[in-house]
Design a protein that fits this description.
Layout: E1 4-9, E2 12-16, H1 29-39, E3 45-52, E4 55-63, E5 66-67
Antiparallel strand pairs: 1-2, 3-4, 4-5
């Protein structure tokens, strides 16, 4: 999988991942998006990715160790 690397100084770099979407159940999506927007800068947020044949797909989005689908305000 190809990524873009931006160098920020000696020993530091930012990786620009080729992802811009996460798909989840329609019923839970509005609340999850609201929680994400409110807490993304103050939470430990990470994604789980599956890579096959050079193509990656986000399979999970977690905030503070819990799947976003289980995160409530």
């Amino acid at each position: 999988m190809k990524v873009r690397v931006l160098y920020n100084g000696p020993g530091k770099a930012t990786i620009v991942w080729p992802f811009d979407r996460y798909y989840m159940g329609e019923a839970a999506a509005p609340q999850a998006e609201q929680v994400y927007r409110q807490r993304v800068r103050s939470s430990s947020t990470y994604i789980t990715v599956r890579v096959s044949g050079g193509t990656g797909v986000i399979t999970g989005l977690s905030m503070d160790g819990k799947p976003i689908e289980d995160t409530h305000q």
